[in-house]
Design goal:
There is one protein chain. Helix 2 crosses helix 11. The protein has 254 residues and is an alpha/beta fold. It is elongated. A 4-stranded parallel sheet has the order 2-1-3-4, sandwiched between helices. A 4-stranded parallel sheet has the order 6-5-7-8, sandwiched between helices. It folds into 2 domains: 126 residues, Rossmann fold (3-Layer(aba) Sandwich); 118 residues, Rossmann fold. The protein starts with a strand and ends with a helix. Helix 5 links the parallel strand 3 and strand 4. It has 11 helices and 8 strands.
Length: 254
C-alpha cells in the first residue's frame, strides 16, 4: 500500500511567501502523517503558467493525481489549503471525481473554514496575535461564489466572541473596504492594523493591501485619517492554522 497526500493550494509567484506559508503547511503534513508522500499542486493555471516561464514546474491537481496513479499509489488524500469552499475548491473536487477509479482510496478534505468552530478559531488567532487595542481589518480574497458569505459570518463570529475590533472585507467579493470604514469610524478606532485573510502574503497582500498606490487599503485608510499598520503575514505562517489543516486531514485518514 502506497499512501500520498496532495497539498493543493491556489499558488503564488512570490517565492519567499510560498516558502513561509505553502511549504510550511506541507512540512506540517509530513510531520503529522508519517509514511505518506506529500506532493504539491496548484489550482491557479495563471500562477502555474507564470512559474513555468521561470522554469519552475508545479502540477495541477489532475497532473499530480495522474503521476501518483502511474507510480502505483493506492491511497491518496487531498488537503486543500484554500480558505473557503469556492470555485477553486470545486476544481479540486472535480479532479478527484475524475480520478477516483484509479485509486483504492481517494478522498478530499475540507478548506480552512469548514465550520463555525473553524471560523471561531481564526477569530481567536487574530485577536491573540494582533490584540484588541486597535482595529484589525483583515483582507480576504472574495468570490462570486455563494461561499463569499463566509467572510460576513467571520465578522459576525468575531463580534459574538467579544472581538469588536475585528473587521473583514475582500479584494474581489461583495464585502469591500468601503463597507467597513464607516464601522471602524463608528467604533472610535484611530489606528488600523491591516493583515491578509489569505494563506499566502503574495500579490494581494503586498500591493492591494499594503502597497503605496492610492487605491490600496493602506492608502485608502490613511486618506480617511487613520494611522495604518500593515502586518504582511499569510495565514500559513501561523502554527495554529497549519494545525487546523492537519486536523481536517485527520478526520478523513482512517
Amino acid at each position: 500500500m502506497k499512501k500520498a497526500i496532495i497539498a493543493a493550494s491556489f499558488g503564488t509567484t512570490y517565492e519567499q511567501a510560498a516558502e513561509k506559508s505553502i511549504s510550511a503547511v506541507e512540512e506540517k503534513l509530513r510531520q503529522e502523517f508519517d509514511g505518506f508522500e506529500v506532493r504539491r499542486a496548484y489550482t491557479s493555471r495563471m500562477v502555474i503558467a507564470a512559474l513555468k516561464k521561470r522554469d519552475e514546474q508545479i502540477d495541477t491537481v489532475e497532473e499530480a493525481l495522474e503521476k501518483l496513479a502511474d507510480q502505483g499509489y493506492t491511497h491518496v488524500y487531498i488537503q486543500p489549503t484554500h480558505i473557503i469552499n469556492g470555485f477553486e475548491y470545486n476544481k479540486i473536487t472535480a479532479a478527484a471525481e475524475k480520478y477516483k477509479d484509479k485509486f483504492t482510496v481517494l478522498e478530499t478534505s475540507t478548506p480552512l473554514l469548514d465550520s463555525d468552530e473553524d471560523i471561531g478559531k481564526v477569530c481567536d488567532l487574530f485577536e491573540n496575535e494582533l490584540g484588541s487595542e486597535n482595529a484589525v481589518a483583515v483582507m480576504g480574497h472574495g468570490t462570486e461564489h455563494s461561499a463569499n458569505a463566509i467572510y460576513t459570518r467571520f465578522a459576525e463570529k468575531c463580534k459574538e466572541k467579544g472581538y469588536k475590533n475585528i473587521f473583514a472585507a475582500t479584494v474581489e467579493g461583495t464585502l469591500t473596504l468601503e463597507d467597513i470604514i464607516p464601522q471602524i469610524k463608528a467604533a472610535g478606532f484611530k489606528k488600523v492594523i491591516i493583515t491578509p485573510f489569505l494563506l499566502v502574503a503574495g500579490d494581494h497582500a503586498n500591493n492591494d493591501m499594503a502597497g503605496d498606490e492610492p487605491d490600496s487599503w493602506k492608502s485608502t485608510l490613511a486618506s480617511q485619517g487613520f494611522e495604518v499598520v500593515p502586518v504582511v503575514k499569510g495565514l500559513g505562517e501561523y502554527a495554529e492554522v497549519r494545525e487546523m489543516y492537519a486536523e481536517h486531514l485527520r478526520r478523513i485518514i482512517k
